[in-house]
Amino acid sequence: MAWELSLLHWFESIHTPVLDTIMKAITLLGNAGIFWILLTVAFLCFKQTRRCGLAMALSLVFSLIFTNIIIKPLVMRPRPFWIDPSFNLLVTAPTDFHFHQVIHQHLLPELLHV
């Protein structure tokens, strides 16, 4: 985890008011999967993208079940700012465990061949 902390401290060293505003907006889109949920709803609204929207919806449900309910409690990977409290967070600190979520973005749609 040492290299991760070094990388995160490097990212933290490039703070500017403009970048901070952009990163806050991007982070807020990721909260509770808002971006993915809105994108899924948009795909479900149109007949020509509905099949992909259904695959996306299934991916979100599987991601919620496997990542948030099963894997996070099993792995219990601490967030970097829990280990090194010197980080200056731009947003409210998440309280759950850290886990990179890729299943709803890549894995399940690939498995479904959408």
Automatic annotation (TrEMBL):
UniProt-listed Gene3D superfamilies: Phosphatidic acid phosphatase type 2/haloperoxidase
This protein's UniProt keywords: Membrane, Transmembrane, Transmembrane helix
Domain of life, per lineage: Bacteria
InterPro entries: PAP2/HPO_sf (IPR036938)
Record flagged with keyword Transmembrane: yes
Transmembrane segments: 25-46, 53-71
SUPFAM superfamilies for this protein: Acid phosphatase/Vanadium-dependent haloperoxidase
Name assigned to this protein: Phosphatidic acid phosphatase type 2/haloperoxidase domain-containing protein
Organism in which the protein naturally occurs: [Bacteroides] pectinophilus ATCC 43243
Taxonomic lineage: Bacteria, Bacillati, Bacillota, Clostridia, Eubacteriales
